[in-house]
Amino acid sequence: MDQLSNAVPARRDRFLIAKRVGAALLALGACVVVAAHGNVTPQAVDTTGLAPLGDDWRSVNPYSGNPTAIEIGSSGFNQNCARCHGLEAISGGIAPDLRRLDNECAGMKDKAARDACVKDNDDYMLTTVRHGRTRNGAVYMPPFEGTLSQEAMWAIKTYLESRREKPLPDAP
Ligand code: HEC
To answer: Are residues 80 and 152 in the same domain?
Structure first.
């Protein structure tokens, strides 16, 4: 657990630097990206083929390693997230590079600690996607709850797991 509690702030610190770049630059970057990629309006994602999850929000990805989820998540990501987080999750720098989301987990030798780390990030990601990010009145990231289903959000996480910069030793 020590490893976990040390690692998570380390990641946040790194993104804090990105956050300090400032809203003006961010807005400018977002305009350029939006102009380049078109799709501005968040779009619902067809999740036919995935087990329905019901109304209760899960805190752990139910689809990890599921090839259908990876495929659906890939298109869901490129429609809804890529304009800020980069096509195929390769960030151009205006928003965090989501291939790195589980990076600090990958370095953990203890499997239990690693699993706990990934679960923590599952919950962190879903909360971020549901509620978006607003600071000092500026919307850095829009909320997706109401647009994307829970199934679509977890499919996107599953896709991001397939794009990890540092693959996990025992990932499905
Ligand atoms: C309008 C641009 C924009 C869109 C669209 C967007 N994001 Fe973000 N996202 C950001 C920014 C900017 C941040 C950093 C927020 C901050 O600094 O507080 C962020 C942060 C995050 C984080 C937290 C990263 C971390 O390690 O702290 C996750 C996870 C995330 N976004 C996932 C997504 C997913 C998944 C989608 C698509 C469903 C998405 N975002 C769509 C701009 C966007």
So the answer is: yes
